[in-house]
Design goal:
With 241 residues, the protein is an alpha+beta fold. The protein is built from 9 helices and 10 strands.
């Protein structure tokens, strides 16, 4: 089936990126092979009546496309409560957690699923093009930090951290990543694990277990901005597991 948002994205990026890279990226965001092929044909065929109508919305639609894909093609989220606007310095998440924003930063929030059980927040310099959220390889040089908040699968378990460590190791190993040994961290009363990935792309991942939810931070490097964002996490429901 032709997806108008995918058609728009392909028309904007077919000349900029290899076709297979776009296919893989959109597959990760939930676009099926059939939908991709149908949308690719439409993108190459030229603007349809529907797409011409969409184009009248202007450049703002293209800027919001990355957030649209990250939330499985839900409408682009309006700034969440506490999202950075003029004069604000903190972000308040869907479950009530708080992140202090570095100077000059804003937060762009949305949901990965229609049921709104997985929240995705990108912390970035004000004015960052949201299409950069799709490429984790850019996170380091652009100072982007992604936070994913979902239900804690180990809630109530005394060995939750051990289970988490095995899950992280298995996931990275399956994807053929080269990574450093996991290290334990503490953020206020939250316990967690951190791992640095060397290959295929340098990155750092930090997982914190709350009483009800799990926080996963992804960044390009373990620098001051990344650490400041993580260490500012305040979970009002936090209890060490």
């Amino acid at each position: 089936m032709v997806k108008t948002d995918v058609v728009t994205y392909l028309r904007a990026n077919l000349k900029k990126h290899p076709l297979q890279a776009l296919r893989g990226q959109l597959a990760e965001e939930g676009v099926s092979e059939e939908d991709f092929n149908d949308s690719l044909k439409a993108a190459r065929a030229g603007p349809s009546r529907a797409s011409r109508t969409l184009l009248t919305v202007g450049v703002a639609l293209v800027a919001a496309l990355a957030v649209l894909l990250l939330s499985h093609r839900e409408p682009p989220p309006t700034p969440a409560k506490g999202a950075a606007t003029a004069g604000e310095s903190a972000f308040v998440g869907h479950t009530g957690y708080i992140i202090r924003l570095p100077k000059g930063y804003e937060a762009v929030a949305g949901f990965k699923d229609e049921a709104k059980t997985i929240e995705i927040v990108h912390f970035c310099r004000a004015g960052t093009d949201p299409t950069n959220f799709l490429n984790e390889a850019l996170f380091g040089q652009m100072g982007i930090v992604r936070l994913e908040v979902r239900t804690n699968p180990f809630a109530g378990s005394l060995t939750g951290l051990e289970h988490l460590g095995r899950a992280i190791t298995q996931q990275l190993t399956v994807h053929g990543a080269k990574f450093s040994p996991l290290k334990s961290i503490q953020v206020a009363s939250l316990r967690g694990l951190q791992v640095e990935v060397q290959l295929p792309d340098p990155s750092v991942k930090t997982y914190c277990l709350g009483e009800d939810v799990m926080y996963e931070f992804d960044g390009g490097q373990d620098d001051d901005t990344y650490r400041d964002i993580i260490n500012s996490l305040h979970d009002p429901h936090a209890e060490a597991l």
